Structures are given as C-alpha cells and as structure tokens.
Amino acid sequence: MPQLPETRAGKTPRPHNRGLLGNGVSWGGTPHRSDVRDWCAGKWVLRLLFVFSVLGFIDAAYLTAEHYLGRIPPCSLIGGCELVLTSTYAAILGVPVALLGALYYFGIFVLLFFFRETGERKFLKILFASSVAGLLFSGWFVYVQLFVLHATCLYCMGSAITSTLIFLGSLWLFASSRGSIGA
Description:
The chain is mainly alpha-helical. It has helices at about 35-70, 80-85, 95-120, 120-150, 155-175; strands at about 15, 25, 90, 95. α1 packs antiparallel against α3, α1 (about 35-70) packs antiparallel against α5 (about 155-175) and α4 packs antiparallel against α5. It is elongated, with a radius of gyration of 21 Å. It starts with 13 loop residues before the first strand and ends in a 6-residue tail after the last helix.
C-alpha cells in the first residue's frame, strides 16, 4: 500500500466507507454517523434505480412486442391505449417510441451497473444527463396524451412515472456524490 502524506494537523488520511460506494477517505478516527447513513441510503437508491430500470424495460419491451405483433395491449382501467399507441406520435422516423424507451431503460441499467462496479463519477454524470432526457421526453409524451390526443395509455403513464422516479433517484445520487466520489 502506498504511503499517504501527513496533512491536516499531522493526521494521515485512511480509507473507510465514506461516500456512496465506500471508496472515500477519512481524516483519522471513525466514519461520521452521517457518512454511514449516506452510504446506506445511497445503496438503497441505487437498488431502487436498478428495479425501476428493469420495470421500465419490461413495460417498454412489452409495448414494443405488441407493436410488432400488430396488437393493442388491453387497457381495462382507462380507455385510450389504442388511440395513443396507433397515433402518429407513437413512432419517430418509423421507430416505435416503445422501442426507444426499451433502449433507454436498458442504457440506464448498464450505466447503473458500471457506476456500481467502478464508482467512477463519469457514469453517474451520464446517468443523470440521460435521466433528464428521459424526464423531458416523458413530459412531452404525457402532454401529447392529455392535451393533444385527449386519451391516456396506462402503460405509457407507467413509463412516465418510472422515468420520473429514475430522474429523482439519479438526482439524489448525483447531488449526494459531489465531492465523495473520485471524478
């Protein structure tokens, strides 16, 4: 192990579970209670983001499969799935929006995996930027459903909620990691 310089009143920094992934440095003593609490909360947020990305992927993949099979999924709670899923807004340049959503959620999952494995902040930055884009696209599609088509797709609203939760979780991770994870 390389020698660490003595600094800050002669104390040598030593590793401990500081930061979201336990790869920070403490200046002597034991970890602060708030560091341990942040570390545990960060692990839970990361786990929830994995769950949300999988749920979003399943939802979007299901809609993609139904699109290519030429079927409209049942929408028993609220009507409107058929109108939303067959509208001109359901595809971008001939590519179903659901397929783009499945790719988005898969990308979020991959970024979460790389961030968890490496702790590199660059993956967290890309995750956060991607979640902002996902939130903006979801906001647009919710607007289109409610105010242009005047119809609601339950599956699409579920995806919008999932995207919002991913944004909030990645925002929390990004904000709480500032200064505690190496850039």
